Amino acid sequence: MSEGINLQLSEREQEFKEMAHEFAAEVIRPAAPHHDSTGEYAWDVLTQAWETGLMNVHIPEKFGGLEASHVEGILIAEELAWGCSGIGTAMEANGLAQAPVLVSGDEFLIGKYLAPQVAELKNGRPIMAAYAVTEPGAGSDVSSLQTIAVRDGDNWILNGNKMWITNAGVADWYFVVAYTDKAAGYKGMTAFIVERDWAGVSVGGKEHNMGQRASDTRSVTFENVVVPHENVVGEVGMGWMLAMNAFDHTRPAVSSAAVGVARAAFEYAKEYSTQRRTFGVPIAKHQAIQFKLAEMAMNIEAGRLLCWQAAAKKDAGLQNTMYASMAKAFCADMAMQITTDAVQIYGGYGYSQEYPVEKLMRDAKIFQIYEGTSQIQRMIIARELFKQR
């Protein structure tokens, strides 16, 4: 007889969740309005997060890390985004750059670049990384990459331009994918780790985005950058595979961050509905508002369970591609709808920057775009469904 499905958190998982929530409540939320209005990078918050142990959590114990599970990672991601998804994205961007390196199992590069991220600060702040794959003409269509790397003895000469790279302006190193054999298609893509201070690496100005303004988004240009062969991630020709497989690891966390934003909007809207009065009663007494709040609550719970399923499958060593895309598509769309409804519940006040929900609505939109648009997620889901025939 089946013992049933256990959705109770372990003691360690609960500790991670509580630690992240406390940090989000006491450190992130008080700092969030300033960084949203100024776009200033939240170095002080990130340094405190590093000291608390909330950054770089998936690096293996062998290299000095916590080796957190995927379930533990999504618990942290939800709470950080509940505090501020812009600051949460700045923190979590390291994980996206690290994921393909970890997938490759390249112990030399893990030891050289990832291990120091948990062991030390650089000039008093965390060592940061960025996932540099997207280009002006190659977002969802990775095969349209124009960045190329040509072998030159023991080195590669890298040329190209990356766009909308999270943490580009603060990163110490980049995970970069380039064509090394265009005729081979996606099998001709190779991944590299490229250091920020190498000759030929230049970073553009900060993008002024609609939401998640505490995150740093910029272009990165590579002009005749000399990359040693030892900095090839995995093997030559594995770049596309590593870049795409990384999403099975990171999409559950991004989806969980969307749940955190939606949860924050729901909590604000629910509280406001008990305070705002119309026609002599709190608006929470009106069925129209009750139904909105009920829909919010249902969809948050459904989204969280999709995240848990996607993360638990990866922890169990099972294929989670379809479930990661289901979580990403559902939670991104759900967060956008819930934050929009929260603004509606606030009415005119919701449209004002003096109240918290307009920021959440702005922050939510990017979840439908980065790490694969909501449309791309549906394509992946359909592809995986037909594989099962």
Give an account of the 3D structure.
- This protein is α+β, with helices and mostly antiparallel strands and 389 residues long.
- The chain has 3 domains: 11-119, Butyryl-Coa Dehydrogenase, subunit A, domain 1 (Orthogonal Bundle), CATH 1.10.540.10; 129-240, Butyryl-CoA Dehydrogenase, subunit A, domain 2 (Beta Barrel); 244-387, Butyryl-CoA Dehydrogenase, subunit A, domain 3.
- Helices cover 51% and strands 14% of the residues.
- The strands form 3 sheets. Strands 1-4-5-8 form a 4-stranded mixed β-sheet. The chain has a 4-stranded antiparallel β-sheet with strand order 2-3-7-6, with helices on one face.
- Helix 1 packs antiparallel against helix 2 and helix 6 (239-275) runs antiparallel to helix 7.
- It starts with 10 loop residues before the first helix and ends with a helix.
- The mean pLDDT is 95.
Task: Summarize this entry quickly.
This protein has helices at 11-38, 43-52, 70-83, 85-104, 107-119, 239-275, 287-315, 321-346, 357-364, 374-387, and strands at 129-132, 148-152, 155-166, 173-179, 189-195, 201-203, 217-228, 232-233, 277-278, 281-282. By secondary structure, the protein is α+β, with helices and mostly antiparallel strands.
